[in-house]
Amino acid sequence: MIVHGVQESIAAEPSLAERTADLAEALLYEAHVIEELRQALLRQRAGVAADDPELVEASVHAMGRTLLTLDEAKRRRAALTSLITGGEAVPMDRLETMLGGSLPAEVAEARALVKRVALLTAQDVAINQHILRRALEAGDTFLQKLFSMAGDPAPGYQRHEPAGDPPARSGVILNRMA
Length: 178
Known about the structure:
Layout: H1 16-49, H2 53-85, H3 95-99, H4 105-148
């Protein structure tokens, strides 16, 4: 049987509402990734406090992976904002002016969440930098003390003992069998 009159459906471009919903979803994902970065920073701080080099190294690797993921999330957000505005990517704080009014509530809430999580993460970065700097300084101070004492003899060491007979032993002999 031959079917006549079959039309191919052509996909319509997404509406502004669909694109702003995609932007809200992208912003929520970005906030999630930033929170993952913050958790890795907290693990790094715990590793330094516990003097656990494996935990510190694992957190550094996790931060590296998370930063790559965050970069991809930012690219996706930029692509979505350029689609919505019909031009170049727009910073998050200028979306209202580019859209000519207020943002949909879901986009505004997602944007606020990204800002809040990013601020907390920036504070944790500053704390970790301070802690790591102090740990490095403490390690340098310890090494300086260690190597500055390397040329000095130990306090109980006597360099010039007479080479004659060994000193006579004195003391009491105890017999446990008595």
